[in-house]
Structures are given as C-alpha cells and as structure tokens.
Amino acid sequence: MAIERTTAFLDIERKTAPKLSPAERLRHYREFMIRRSPEDLQEQAARCMNCGTPFCHGLGCPLDNTIPEFNDLVFNNRWREAADILHLTNNFPEVTGRVCPALCEAACINAIDGQAVSIRDIELAIIENAFEQGWVEPQPPAMLTGKRVAIIGSGPAGLAAAQQLRRAGHQVVVFEKAEKPGGILRYGIPDFKLEKWVLDRRIEQMRAEGVSFKCQVEVGRDVSASYIQRRFDALCVTIGAGKPRDLAIPGRELDGVHLALDFLQQNNRRLDGLPFDGLPIMAEGKRVVVIGGGDTGSDCVGTSLRQGALSVQQIELLPKPPDSRPENNPWPQWPLILRTSTSHEEGGARDWSINTVRFAGDNGHVTGLECVRLEWERTPQGQMKMVPIPGSEFTLQADLVLLAMGFVGPVHEGLLDSLGVAYDPRGNVKTDENMMTSVPGVFAAGDVTTGAWLVVGAIAAGRRMARRVDQYLMGESDLPDCVLPPRL
Amino acid sequence: MKNDWYPEAEGLYDPAYEHDACGVGLVTHIKGEPSRQIVRMGLDMLINLSHRGAVGADPETGDGAGILMQTPHEFLRARCADQGVLLPAKGQYAVGMLYTPRGNPGRCMEIFEKALRDEDLKVLGWRHVPTDPMAVGVTARNACPEVMQVFVANPNLDYLAFERQLYVARRAAENAALAEGGDVAQYFYVPSLGSRTITYKGMMRSQQLERFYEDLRSEDLTSAIAIVHARFSTNTFPSWPLAQPFRAICHNGEINTLRGNINKFMARRSQLFARSFNGDMRKLMPVIVEGMSDSANFDQMLELLYMSGRSLPHAILMMIPEAWGEKYYMGHDRRGFYEYHANFMEPWDGPAAILFTDGAQAGGILDRNGLRPLRYSVTRNDLLILGSETGAIEIDPPDIVARGRLRPGKMMIVDIAKQRVLNNDEVKADITRQQHYRRWVAANRIEFQGFGIGAGATTYDEATLLTRQIAFGYTREDLNSIIMPMAATASEPIGSMGNDTPLAVLSDQPQLVFSYFKQLFAQVTNPPIDPIRERLVMSLTTFLGPESNILEEKPEHARRLKLRSPVLTNADFERIRSSKLPGFRAITLDTTFNVSEGEKGLEQALDKLCADARWCIDEGYALLILSDKSVSAARAPIPSLLAVSAVSHYLINAGIRNRVALLVESGEPREVNHFALLLAYGCDAVNPYLAFETVAHLHAQGVLPRTLTLQDAIENYIKAVSDGILKIMTKMGISTLRSYSGAQIFECLGFSRAFVDKYFTNTASRIGGIGVDHVGRETLMRHAAAYKPRRGVSASLRSGGLYSFRLDGERRLWSPEAIYCMQEAVRRNDKTLYRRFSDLVNDQRDRWTTLRSLLDFKVDPACSISIEEVEPAQEIVKRFVTSAMSFGSISREAHEALAIGMNRMGAMSNSGEGGEDPARYIPLPNGDSRNSAVKQVASARFGVTAEYLANARELQIKIAQGAKPGEGGHLPGHKVNVEIAQTRNSTPGVSLISPPPHHDIYSIEDLAQLIFDLKNANPNARISVKLVSEVGVGTIAAGVAKGHADMILISGGDGGTGASPLSSIKHAGLPWELGLSETHQTLVKNDLRGRVRLQTDGQMRTGRDVAIAALLGAEEYGFGTASLVALGCVMMRKCHLNSCPVGVATQDPRLRARFKGAPEHIVNYFHFVAEELREIMAALGFRAVNEMIGRVDRLKVRDNIEHWKARTLDFSAILHQPAAPPTVARHKVREQDHGIDNVLDRRILKDVLPIIEAGAGRIEKCYLIRNPDRTTGAMVSYEIARRYGSKGLPDDSITLRFAGSAGQSFGAFASRGMTLILEGDANDYVGKGLSGGKLVIYPPRSAAFDPAQNIIVGNVALYGATSGEVYLNGLAGERFAVRNSGARAVVEGVGDHGCEYMTGGIVVVLGQTGVNFAAGMSGGIAYVYDPTQDFDVSCNHDMIDLDPLTDAEDVETVRSMIEAHWQHTGSPRARWMLDDWDTIRRLFVKVFPIEYRRALGQMKKLERNVRTQAERVERM
C-alpha cells in the first residue's frame, strides 16, 4: 500500500464505520454498524501520527490504551500483535469498541483542527479479527494462590476485576443478582448497540479461565454479606450506581410514566426470552416522551422507535449544546457539543431548556406533560440558574413518558448498609488509595464509588482494583496498574 | 602525587579540563649559521603573534610565552667564564634550565645534582639566570620561579647516549622533587636539558619575554634556530611550566584523544623494554605525567620515542600520521610505514600544528585534517620562516623565494647538516624506507579469508527470544524505534525536541549501565569533524592481538589481526573463536553471575572475571571473549560495559592490557551509543548477538521491507552502527577508531566516586551516586522480569517511553496535562492554571526527573520581604530570551510571533541560524517589531550578511546545541522552499548542509578572532557564545571570557532540536545545573566573572527553574520548547517530518494555516514565570535578581529524599561557593575591552565616512597593513550596511589599497560598494561573510617568485560569503570558498576540501586543487583548470557531476571572469590562458552539483512557462 504516512492525516479523510439505513435497522434489534475491510482500516490507521505525546493515550483513554502502537501495527498489517497490545490494557475491547464514546478520539491531536483518527473502529476491528482468527484463548492461571475473592456485581468493573484476579491465580466467584452476568452491559445497553452474544463469548473465556459465576444470588438478601466476608479473603463491590434520578412532580404516579432503565431492561430481557417483573412497558402505537437528553435517553428513543412508537419526543432541561466547541471547552477536553446519536438518526424530535411541571392524566393514565421553557442565567457565583420564561407554558401529549434523567448513586439498602461501608458526601462508597472501603478486606470500584460514568471507566477501575486486591492478598502484584486521567 | 601548577580541583572546577592554544613560529637559517638576527626575528615574530595569545583578569599577566633555540655556546661560555665556570667545547656539555623557588634555589639544585651524579654525570657548574620579575604581571609574579642553569659534562658519549643519560637523570630528579613535596615539588621544573637546545619561557605576554630574561636581550646570544610560542590558555592560574615551547616541540591545537593515549601507554608499560635504557625503565616512569597539558604530555611521549633511537621526524610521524586511507594517493612504502606503525601506536589525534627541533633539524607538521595554519616563507638569504601567520616577520618582497603553507598531514624540515629545506616527500621517503616496513606488514598481517564479507546465517531462538530481550531490558521502543529503522534503512533514527525524561540515576525503571554515561564533544578548543563529507580522513580499522614493545622495531610488530569494523557478525565471531593461529588463541570468559547470590554477586563475579582474565594471559591466550550467552533463569548477565571496562582497567593497572584483545559477545548492546561506550572503555570488537537475533525475528515477522533479505538487514544494522560510531567519534574531533578506543570520551552521571575509580578509572563523575550493588540490583530487576514467573500477565516488553510519552514508561515533564494547563493558562491569562502547570513541573516528589528537583530553597522567614518590594515583573522579563530556533525549523508565523512577543517586553528572541528576511527589520505600523534581537552566527552562516549583523542587539556564536552538540545538520532539498531559500541565500530545492564545526573556529584563539570579527561588524551589538554543558565547560568558558565574549550561554544537554539522531538527543551533553555552576565557579575563581553575563537554557519552564538558575550563577534565562508550547506546540516530536499539526514546526501551508499562537501568549507566559520568580524572591528576601546571582548558599538539597538511587547523590560540588576575595565580582559589572578602538578601520572611516554618509561619490585611499591588523574592512562595512542594507553603495564607491601582509579576516563582511586591493598576502579567513564587496590580492609587484606557485591567502577564505567578487593571484589554503553561497571568485589554486558545502556562487580555479574538492557542495558552480585530466581523483563525487566546458554560456562566464582577474591582478597565468583561450578552455571542467542542476532546470522551466503565458496574453 503506497500511503505517505507522514501526511496521511491530511491526505486521507476520516471515515467511520458505515451503518445500515435507519429504515432497515428499525426492523430489528441487531447491530447495524457494518464491519470494514482490513485495508480500509489500515488506511485509517495511517492517519495516526504516532505522536510523541499521544493525548489519546496519555489523557483521553481511561484504560491507558497504547493507541499509537496498535494503530501502527494495524497500518503495518500486524494484526496479531495489535491484539496483544490492546489486551495489555483492556480486557473487553469488543465492548469498548462498540459502546465507548471514544474519549481518545476527542483527545486525538488530529481533532484540534482536523478529524480525529477513527480509533474506536480500529479497536473493534482488531479484537473481532482476533476472535475470528482464534487468537483469543482462555488464559488460565499458571499457578494458584489459594486465595478466594468474591466479586459482587458483574458489570464492566466486576468482570474486569474478576478476569484480572483469576489470571493472577486467585479463586474468583462473581455474584450476580440477575440470571446472567453482565450488569449494565446486558440489561442496560440495548442490543442494537451491544448484542449479547458478544458478552457471552467473553464470559465463556472467563469461565474457561476458571472464574465462577453465581447468578441470581443477591448478596445482602439471598446470602448475608457477613457470610461472604467469612468465606472469602477479599470482597469486591462492583454493583454500580443503579439508583435512578426520579422526577417528583404531580402526576408522577400515573400509569405510563416509567423509569428509563425499567423500560430498557424489560426490552433486553424480552429479547433474551427472560421473564420480567411488572407489566410490559411498550411504546408501540404510543406517543412517547423521553425526559433527559443523555445516552440513556437516546437508548429510549431507539428502543421506542423499534417498538413502533407513534411519535417520540425527547426533552432536556439544559440548553441546547453548541454545534462546535465553545472557547471555554478547549481541546483536549471532552467536547460538550450537540451529539446526534444513531438513535436520533432513526427518528423522533428533540427539544431543550424545558422543565416539566406536572404530568397530566386521565383515568390514572398519563396523557401529557405540562412544561415551561427555561432561560439559563449565570449567577454572580458563576453557577447556572434556570429561570422559567413567563408565558411559555405548553403541553406535550404523551401516552408513555420515560424518565432518563441519570442516576443519583448506588443503592445503599441491602448489601452496602449491611457491609457497613462508609459513604462520601455524595452517597458513593468511600475508598482509600488502595481502593479499600472503610471495611477491611472489602474493596469497591466503578460507578459504586464514583457515581454513574462510562463503561470504559468501569473497566479501568476494575483493573485498578484488581491490582490492589492482589497486592492486599499477596503483598505484591504483577498485575498492571491503570493511571487515573487528570481532570481538565 | 602531582604537581600543583593548577589549583586543586574544587567544587565543579577540575584542572584536568584546562586547554590551551596559541600562535607558533619558527625561524631558522637553512645553512645553520647562528646569528643574533635569528633570535631577534623569533622574538619579533612572538610579538606579532601576540593577538593569538591571551591575558587574564590581570591584563599584565599573559598565559605564557617562550623561545626554544640552539644552545648559544659562545654566549654561555663567556657568561660562565665570568662566574668561574669553564665550559668545554661546543657539544661536549649540556645545559639545563631549572625552575626553583624564588630566592631559595638550593634544595632543587641539590636534588638535580644528585640525580645527575647517580647517572654518572658530572656537573660543571651553575649559573644564575638573570631575570626581572617586575617585567611580568602580578599574578605571574606571585608564582615566579628563580631560574638556574646547570652545566653537565659529556663523559665522552655519542650524542644520543648522552641525551639519554640526561633524560634518565632528569626524570629521576623530577620524581625525587615530587616525592619531597612542598615548595620544591611545586617549583622544580626543567624547561630543557640537552646538549643542543635550550628553552627560555615563562608565564608572561610575548612582549615581556625579553624584558624578563636579560639573556635574550644580549647581542651575543645567537642561534640558527628559534621556535617561539604565545599561549592562550583557558585559565588565568600561574602555571609557568606549561608555557611553551617544551623540550623539543611547541604545539598549537589540542590532543582530543589524550585520555586514550595515556591509557594505552599505561597498558603498554610492562612491554616497554629498551636496550638503550639498559632495560631499566623504572626511573622513567610514569613518563607521561598526568595533570599537565596535552601538549606537555605529547612532548613527553615524543621524547621517549626519540630517546629510543628514532629521529624526531620519525617519532612525530608515529604520533601524528597523515591520513592514509584509500582515497589518498600515496606510495606503497609510505602506506606500509603507516600501517606498520598503526599496529602499536595510535594517533594522538586532534588539531595540531607542531614545530620541533632537536638542534640539528627543525621543522613543522600539521595533523591529518590540517586544522591549524602553518605558513612559510623562504628567503634569498637562506631563511625559513614558518608560523601561524604570514607577515609576522616583514621581509622585503624581492627577497622572497617562495611562499607557501603546510598542507594537512604534511611535514617540512630544515636539516642543518644537509643545509637545505626538505619537503614533505623528501623527509618521508627517507623515513619510510629506513626499514622494509611494507614487506614486514605484508608478511605478518593476518586477514581472515572472507572476513567481514556477508553476515552468514543469523538465526534466533523463538522459544527464548522474548525472555532474553526482557532480561537485557529491551523495550518496544528499542524494537520499533531503534533496531527496526536501523535494519531497514541502514541509518540511525532521527527525532526532534529535547529530553524531558528522568536522569538514569533518578529513574524508577531499571537502567542499563550505558544510560549513566553522557557523550563528551568538542567545543571551541577543538573542532568536530564531518563524518560524511570528510569520511576520507576517518577509519574504523582496528588490530587485534598482542602488541609489541614500542621502543623497538621488528617485523613481528605487524603480526596482528586486522579488522575493518569493530562490529562482528556471528559468523565472523565464530571464526575468531575457533582461531587456530599460533599466538592468536581465543578463550571465552563467562560474564554472567549467579542470581541466588543477589546483588552482591555482581562484584564477586567481576573480581573473578578480572582474575580469570589475568590467568588467561598467563596461559598465553591473546583473544579474550567476554560472553553473556549463558544467561538463564539461574544466571544474570554482568552489564557488558561494566565487564569490559573492569577487565580493561584491571589489566591496564597490571600493565598487561596490550597483550590481549577484549571482545564482547553480549545481548545488551543495541543502539549506537552502547557500541561507542564499549569501544571507549576498552572493548576491541563486539558481537551484539541479541540485536542480530532481533533483526532476524523482525525479518521473519515481515516487519522489515519485503525487498530486504536477512543478510541485507544485518548489514544495514551494522552499517548504521558503524556510521553512528563515526559520528560519535567526530563529535570529539577524533578521526580513527584506534585513537577513540579506550579514550573514555564520556562523562558519568550518577555513579559513586569509588565505583568509578575502580571500574571506569579517570572518568568524570561529579555528583556521586550509586555503586556496584545498585547496578547489581538493577540487573536483577531486569532478570526477574524475564525469568521470575509472573502472575496474571503474559510476558511482554515494556513500552519504554524514552522517545514518546507512555503512561507506564519514563516520566516526562511535558505530560499531556502539563501541556494543556500551560497552553490554556497563556491563552486565558489564567494564573491558576499556570500555577497548576508549574506545580506539575516543579513538584517531582513522586517521580524525580531533574537535578534541580532535588534542590530546595533555604528560606529564612526572618529575611522574607513583601512581594511589593521585589523588582517588578516588567523588569525581570527583560532577562528572558527565547532559545535559538531558525526560520526553517519553525514556521514563519511561529518565528514572528516569538519575535513580536519578546520585543514587546523588551526581552530578546533569537533568529536561530537560518538568516532573517530584511523586511522584518522595519517595525510594523502598530509599533511591533518582528526583528529578532539576537542574531545567530552558526557554522553554516546561512544568511549571515553585513546587513543581518548590523541589525542585531546581540550576535550569538553557536558553538554547540544541547540536542546535538558537535554535529552538523542537513536540511533536505524538498524542505527548502522559495522563502527559506531567500533568507538563507540559497536555491529552492537544493539541500543545505551545516558543517559540524565553524570552519573559522578550530581553537580558542580562533574564537577570539571571530568575536573580534563580529564586534567589528557591529560595534554596538554584544557578542555571545553558546556552549553546551559538559565536564570542563567552565574552563572553556574562562577561555571564551578571555576571548572577549560579552555573554556566555551554557545550554543544557537536554535542549530541543528540529532534527537530531535519537542517540544524540538522549546521550550527549549534561544538565545545565552542572555546566552553569562549573562555569560560574571557574569564572569567579579566575576573576573573570565580572566581565561576562551568563545565560542558561535547556528544559527551562517555571519560575522555580529560573530561581535555581539565578542562584547557581545565571543572569539570563532561555526558553525554547516552553515558548513553543505557549504558541501551541503539543510535543508531537515530529518537527523533522515537516508534519507539525499545529503549524509551529512546519513549512506546509496547509499546516501553517492551523497556527493559533499569538504574541500575547508569549507575553502572558513570561509574566507568569516572572511572577512565580518574584514570589520565590520575596520568600528568600531578594529585592533584585542581581542580588541572587550565584548565591548557592541559599540552596540546599531537599530533605527526605527516599528514592533508593537519588539519595546517593552528592550535590556539594554544585553547591560549592568558590573561594575568592569579596572584591571579586559575582555577576557582570564591567564591559570587556574588545580592542576595537584603534583598529585600522577607524583610520579608514575618518577618510571615507563622508562618502558613506552622503551615499554618493567615490574615494580611493592607500594604507600599509600588517598581520596584527585584523578584520580590516568590517567596520567600514557596518557603517554602510546599517544605512543602506544589503544593496550597499554603488560599485567601487570606496576603493581601499593596502600594501603588506594583512591579518586574519581581511575583507570580512565587506559590503557592496567597497573594493579592497591588497598588494602582498593575507592570512586566514579572507573575505569571510563577503557581502557584495570586491577583494583583489596579488603579490608584491617586486616579488621574484611565480604567483601561481605561491600561497597568497590562508585557509577558509570566503567562508559563508553571500555575494561579491574576489580575485586572488596566487594559491589559497584549505577549504577555499567553504559554504560560499553567492560570491564569484578566481584563484590560481586551492588546498584540500575546496568549495566544501558550497550552495551558490561561482569559483574558477586556474590551477591545482587538493583532495575532497566539492564535498557537500549542493549548489553553485566551480570551473577547474585540469590540464592533466586527473582532477576527478581529488574530487568528492557524492553530490556533483563533472562536465566538460562546452556550453557557450559557461565558456563566456569563465572567460570573462579570467579576463577580470587579469585586469585586477595582472596574473601572468590569466594572460597566457586568455592568449590561448581556444585551447585552454577545453582543459577546464565544470563542477556541477546534481541537485543544483535539477533546481536550475526547474526554475528555467518555470520562467519559460511564465514567459509563454505572458506571450499568450500579449497575443490576445
């Protein structure tokens, strides 16, 4: 391939994976990104400048992925080594390659004035190719330490920690309250973004390595925390920050007003042929309003459209983000700009600076939202304050309202309270520099300690914790560490 | 024991790094008639060379002067008779000069007498030599000796036997005096002792010599030979014995390889055996006395060789052989002579002009590179005058028979017995045929069949490769950034920007022993060499096998194994290992140690290894192979450098090193610097087996280009290593591996004294550090990573992080976070963000990186003051400069933003070495100025015109650059766009090469001359000199201060670059903390500090950095990288690829458009730094920066350093307060006296200024000129250039006629409108930087000789000339028109390296050229008269084609230039050429650079297109 590597970032256009058309993808829940040819990705990898100071690696990626190195290897058609390098820092590139917002691409030096290298596509291609070639094999530990570690919660943090600790030779048991492991990956993220066979494939590898999964066991309810504490040498809490933010306004009790996660979870379970609690929440034939403009909100939009909603309207309290970076949000910060997710491409409408004052109902069923438009002002202290615009009140008709307003933190009741761990002022589990909670031998990582954040952050936290647990158990550890990215 | 002629080492000052240089001269009567006139002429010559000597803080104390001559028999007999001593007949006695304590000579005399008696020699008597201490300066007077003469009878021995006996007695006396200690040891010194010669010398200025020695004023003191020397030393300490001449020679230059030469001599000690000394060499030891100067050591070695029975010229040829590589045309016998001697004597390498005499013969020789001038005249009355400059003695033109110069590697002597001058060939023919050297070599030399041909099979063991790579500390960067590119492209990888990773001793990652060493390099006192363009003088040939006694000559001396390269393939190595040759048996010594013994196991293993080596020698093995191939889970490798150096020094100490060759078979060496280190510490040849396996593995993986066979890849790798070694050698100015080998040209950073003394003896290591156990621990850490089972991770190489930022690699101070914070801080003018940045950089407690991070301020709250009392930031910022960055290396936008920003603050930006667009000299409408206040003058002299110089506030001579000291540069043609070509006076598309040295600075007195040149070219600019930190930089700086620099910049070795080999960025040069404190301490010690400002730079970022620099002694502070980061640089480290994505370091218009920097960012950044500094000043209680300069007492080492390596460091040398009286200034308090108040130009200006001011009219004037009249014309040119810029005045407005011998730099920087006509001759640097003026030089009309056969100008004429015309009726020296970019010149013949690096202009040579013509010539055209059609033999063809002169345009150009030459000079040769032009023109060849031809073609095409278009438009 005759590519002038030095100027490839100028000569070659950034390309991301092509997608099926919205009309086509709405017919099913399967992934709709189209895999690209290796040649195509080599060309894209050539755009990587192999920076002396790679911000993607040094600042963007919470996992410390050595992005320039795997880009270079892909460019040089050395896919196997690329997979090796990728696996040095990331347990589940097939997950981050699908669902990560790619902080690395935001920090890519090419993104200052041009177009970032399509790092996420390259990552995904490396790992999928590696699976296809049979290069991803179980790596059972060469020797066993005889130590037992319990991991409670099988989301990304728990799974990453489990794999790391097992490979270090410990006996690892993962407790999961649901039927199958995966946590948010399995029950939160819609299939069209992450098909569940992807998880099954990786969990298969973990089982082969000797990780034991105890599903449908909720520690703190089905078994006591103290029982686990006695049976294990260390305990890792990775239960996430599952408590959603609710909207305590009149009419909240009406039928048809649901938390987004209930809606999404049901759908995923339904697709997996699993039973679920409560009545089905379906968007088919309904006017759907999604409150909340984040990723969960957009997942609700995509799912509603697939279920056959009559209309989908998404509203957001905050003002509409700008189309390009404002001056106070410079590179390499994560750009706070208007993002159009794949779900938005598929349909529905969006509006911003809207506060919902009450839900209107008829016969106990929601019929609409009474809203008011907002103006955002900056207080002398520099904080943003919302001010309703007089006379801007309006009503949105709705048969189904989905509340996707984020999460307030971990659920304290049950496990956490019975363990007796201390909390930080925001209600997250407090940990020390060894990621240990206030209870000796009990560690925590991921959203349960930070509040809801990204999958990639949870994997990183799981890896970081694994090293510390290993150190705690053995006095030393060969497991790699993972550097916390600075806050800009 | 040592003499303390220098002060003791103190703080960072160490006398071992003193240098000296000078002017030299020889006057001799060819027929050997002694006369007063010869002595008188010698003394006159000395005075006329005095500008080459120097004075120190006390202007009356010179560095040294002296005269060596024949024993003045009549004079001595008369004087002795007065004192009742009766001298026998001439030659029947010897006279000795003796220094003794003043007023108390008794004890010294006793010692001397006893030693003489012990050798059965009879003392006839003593004479007190009348001296006048009042004649010398105060400093010199305080150490002034009493001088005594001793007379010793010859007990009827032949000449040599007598001299030998005297020699033994003298050595015994010297040793006895030393043993006695006290005053005796300090004063006792014998300037000369012999039957034919005598030396009068001392620490004084040239003019003071005859005032001091009454003898020299005596009319009856006569000699037929006089050799004189004026010394310029880097120090100002009283050192009478180091004045020259020595016993047989005087030397101008510098022996670069001294350490290696001394080590080799020590290694040969036990082998020394000479019947002539009755086999007893003990009294002579140590022969080479350490702690003296390089020249003194040279003299001592030479003396030994001479005493062994060789003639003086023979002995000198052994030590300073000419280059005898394939490119040199040379007879077989002479080549045989050199090869024979190469077997047992390595060159004493370095710039050298040596004059010598033993009283019967007298002569001179130049080193192979011809880096010092020697000019001669032969007169009708049988005088030969030979010296550094022509014209030092005035001779009536009609008396001159011949005028010439010594050429590189050539020698000439006067043999008084033969009563004539013997030229080079005559001398050498005699010497080289004394024995059948050629046959001896042919019969004995061993060259393996097929040796070095083909790499043979290289295999790798897949199963263990990765494990072993980990055990030897390989990283992914080693594979991808080092080995892979070397195997793929056969060259060393290039990188950019500086080094911001931790020093090895501060790093958390286990470091290789190699990483603790930093390459040393030549600066000022000797020049680096160009290993590519001047490859012909270089050699990697080595000889293996036992050496023989150097005091004898036998055929068996040549029985050695000859290697062409020290890097051996596996096949080569196996052949050596299995050698069955008698006397060449090989044995392998295991260099691994038992892991179970822990870190202590290393030292034990080393002891055993040394003992084993000794046993092997006793058993008769000649090739010792140190091999770590048995590395395994149980055995860890001894670091290869430690192993080889330990064994080598152990054997040197035992005096048996030269009985064996040490070969290293190791998995460790992989990058160029590793190989250089192994060789420098005693290894004779290396087999890097693991690097080869790695190449083979990369090849098998398909990582290397498909077209490459494995064999090619291995050969590429070896070639890259070999070229890299050459490059490292040349940085120190060393030409041959034989003299580099064992020369230890490195400084160690972070090893304890004891550790270094034992294993790396005589290597500088100034801040202590770790010991052998720490090294053991680091080795075991690597070993454990490889062999200890690891839980949970698959085996893999570490990332590295040395060349790119890696989170798991070495810490980098320019982290993404730091870059972000700083850039946002300056963009938003946000102090909080700046503080976050400076905290990130300053606080290194978790990961130590820099030396300064380990220092802390001594804050006494009682002294602290309020910040309002501290001088304001607006004042402080004026001390800030941006480091030199050329337009070309960075974009126009970035370059101008820097200039505007700095100018707004009254601070200074630096143009770098790429010239500057004159449009920038005119302020912008808003008052901003884009003019760089500092204009750099670097080795390529790009764009250095009279106008450029006239528009500077400071002129900076760049001697070295932190990222690549001692190296040149190469800007490839595709980067030279129209704009860059314009500012650099070159052609778009034509490569630009920067030579490694300034071709007008080979020595310290040359630098003084360039300073003088620049001061004349702009009397209002201050002159600064940029040096790079390394051990000894302080003494160099002292020399520079004595050479009248106004400011000295000490750059840290970590500084940035636009393109440099990775190994140079990482491994050359030292941190500024060391260089700065050494310089400050040395200058204070010499009382020179008050004359110069000090500036420092190199990874300077924050106010804390500045505060530490100030306390260590700097007044000004430079920021390179940081100022670019402020403008948007994101440390891509791809400057060399032109692909800078933020438009800073690129010329690509697409990328330049992305530039977002602004002058405000620069202003904001520097104000932040100043404010941070103010806070520190307030806390320390300093109101003004000047108060804190050099206040090391306010610094301390940080408390609680726990890092296991960092805590071993000892900062006391850095924090040392030099002992000096309070009257001695600690910062600059007075101006230098540049000596430009009474130069000839001042007189000329009186005559011509009205014309210049008027800008119209014409004037013609005549002046007499002498060699002390230097840089004539430059000041006149300044007056023109500052008014009229480069367009100057109308041609021939000012015509200046001169008669006599002009001093150096005649016509330098002469502007358009000036015509300088000289009847006589001129010294070096004629027409340097010529800027449009016209120079005409022809011999005196009354001279009898043929101008075409005689030298008329010295070396390096037209260096960096940019335009103008030159007509020289005679021969020019070496490097004629070097780096000429626009001048047109006609000359009758040139020396070696003519038209080197030329990029433009036209040179017509009407006669012979030396070798290597047109090396690195990328542009311009030369036309050479080549009647014998063998010009191509002496031409360097790499970049040029030779065409016949057929094109009509060419023919006319040459004809008209010869015509003009005839008209201006009346050259007879020009006349007959013109008269027979049709025949003659066919004998010219055109030297046409290939790139230039292409570029011209493209330009023509472009013009044609434009024309056709224009025509088309017209037609329409």
Outline of the structure:
Chain A has 488 residues and is of the alpha/beta class.
Strand elements of chain A, count? 16
Uncertain runs of chain B: none
Rg of chain A, alpha carbons: 23 Å
Please provide the count of β strands of chain B: 51
Mean pLDDT level of chain A: 95
What's the helix count of chain B? 46
In round numbers, the mean pLDDT of chain B is 93
Biggest sheet descriptor of chain A: 5 strands, parallel
The number of distinct helices of chain A, counting runs of at least 4 residues, comes to 19
Strand order, biggest sheet of chain A?
A: 3-2-1-4-16
Protein architecture, described:
Chain A is of the alpha/beta class and 488 residues long. Chain A has helices at 8-11, 22-25, 38-46, 55-60, 67-75, 79-89, 93-99, 103-107, 119-132, 156-167, 184-187, 196-209, 225-231, 260-271, 295-307, 342-346, 415-419, 447-450, 455-474, and strands at 148-152, 171-176, 212-215, 234-237, 243-244, 257-259, 287-291, 311-315, 349-351, 354-362, 365-378, 384-388, 394-397, 400-403, 407-409, 442-444. Chain A has a 5-stranded parallel β-sheet, sandwiched between helices. In chain A, a hairpin with a 2-residue loop joins strand 10 (354-362) and strand 11. Chain A is globular and about 70 Å long. Chain A starts with 7 loop residues before the first helix and ends in a 14-residue tail after the last helix. With 1516 residues, chain B is α/β, with parallel strands linked by helices. In chain B, the strands form 12 sheets. In chain B, strands 41, 42, 43, 44, 45, 46, 47, 48, 49, 50 and 51 form an 11-stranded mixed β-sheet that branches. A 7-stranded antiparallel β-sheet of chain B has the order 7-2-8-1-13-12-14, with helices on one face. A 7-stranded parallel β-sheet of chain B has the order 30-39-38-36-35-32-31. Chains A and B meet through helix 4, helix 5 and helix 10 of A and helix 26 of B.
